Amino acid sequence: MLTQRPRGTADIYGSAIAAWRALEEVVHATFRAYHYEEIRTPVFEHTELFERGVGETTDIVEKEMYTFLDRGERSLTLRPEGTAGVVRAYVENKLYAAPGAAKLYYIGPMFRYEKPQKGRERQFHQFGCEVLGSDDPAVDAEVIALNVDVLNRFGLAGLTVELNSVGCPVCRPEHRARMVAVLKPAAHRLCPDCQRRLDRNPLRIFDCKRGCREVLAELHAPSILDALCPDCRQHLAAVEALLTALAVPYVRNPHLVRGLDYYTRTAWEVTAPELGTVGGGGRYNGLVAEVGGPDTPGIGFAVGMERALLLRELQHGPWPAEPRLDLFVAVADPSATAAAMQMLQAVRQAGFTADRDYQGRGLKAQLKQADRLGARLVAILGGDELARGAATVKDMASGEQRDVPMDGVVDLLRRLADGAQI
Ligand code: HAM
């Protein structure tokens, strides 16, 4: 146990870090281009926020939350998703007082007690965004386009948006009543979970993974799209027209239900043939009021970063190795340690990467290490070099070697960076 991480978690290190950093950089640059501001909210919140926000009938709240009592007997929960916390922060900090819609994005770890498998962890990471304060369908289209754009910028291709409308408090009750009327007589054919869903949230049956979807198909369960009220219908049509104008590839999926209860109207998932769902989101016009804020419409999405990275690897192979080391300083004699450290600091402060051995290895082993690290140059410093006031500098690619004054190494690296030969 002591040397084993908990199931469903990962250590991210070594060559994986370059890929994570690259994804994070794409995320920051893309949201900057769309003029979003970053927000960082706590990793844990009051349990009630998720019960109210995410919804008591969702799998997340029913089965997947990491909930605990702290030493003051407060019930806290590790966030299973980012939206509820961002909305809480929006209300608590009165971000609605600023003019215009709030456009916020985030990156961070999320926690769900799920059965781990490829692309499904218990601690995973999302980046995502929320736009609060506009019900304009142009925002829906822009946010969906942004969801695809950020993944395209990370080199992911072949993505499709599956689009649906889940209606609103005006049209959903009617659809719900129609669903119940069709399904009630066949309730015994549904799994125990869906029998409960039938009373509490029948739309969720479309998301069942235990065969209830076949029952729905057989009984011709009504599609929410047929039940939409005129306003929801118009909203969806406007979103679709704008997605077409923006050349965002989408397909309608009338059976798409997301795993969270806060959605109203637009809901979507971005899928890839190799992997399934990479990200998803939707509009949530009732959530801000639900957590105690002013009646404010909202919309957003989140992408699973592990899944984006997995897809990138499936499409392009392993991430290329980190850029190599500019300089390795080999210390041939302990008397040269101070001079070596001065050289290392000068080179690093000039913006180059430089390293040395810390384990007292012999010169031959140090040169081997420099080679393994892919160093461009090696500067050898020993008693002779100190006496001459110059380091022996070796170009690791050509094997060429020459003396360079102690304070001339930075200059040499600059000239090499400009394309000169040693
Ligand atoms: P979600 O669909 O629950 O939505 O999660 C979004 C994405 O997070 C998924 O598409 C998936 O890539 C990733 N994800 C979810 N669970 C796991 C897991 N156990 N392991 C690895 N990746 C996972 C939300 O979380 C909403 N907050 C999105 C949103 C923002 N809606 C409006 N605003």
UniProtKB/TrEMBL annotation:
Its main location: cytoplasm. The keyword Ligase applies. One of its GO terms (cellular component) is cytoplasm. It is found in: Cytoplasm. Keywords: Aminoacyl-tRNA synthetase, ATP-binding, Cytoplasm, Ligase, Nucleotide-binding, Protein biosynthesis. Residues 7-320 form the Aminoacyl-transfer RNA synthetases class-II family profile domain. It comes from the Bacteria. Pfam families: HGTP_anticodon (PF03129), tRNA-synt_His (PF13393). Its EC number is 6.1.1.21. GO terms for biological process: histidyl-tRNA aminoacylation. It catalyses: tRNA(His) + L-histidine + ATP = L-histidyl-tRNA(His) + AMP + diphosphate + H(+). GO terms for molecular function: ATP binding; catalytic activity, acting on a protein; histidine-tRNA ligase activity; transferase activity. The keyword Cytoplasm applies. L-histidine binds at residues 81-83, 112, 126, 130, 258, 262-263. Belongs to the class-II aminoacyl-tRNA synthetase family. NCBIfam families: hisS (TIGR00442). Homodimer. This is Histidine--tRNA ligase. It comes from Alicyclobacillus cellulosilyticus. The lineage of its organism: Bacteria, Bacillati, Bacillota, Bacilli, Bacillales. The gene is hisS.
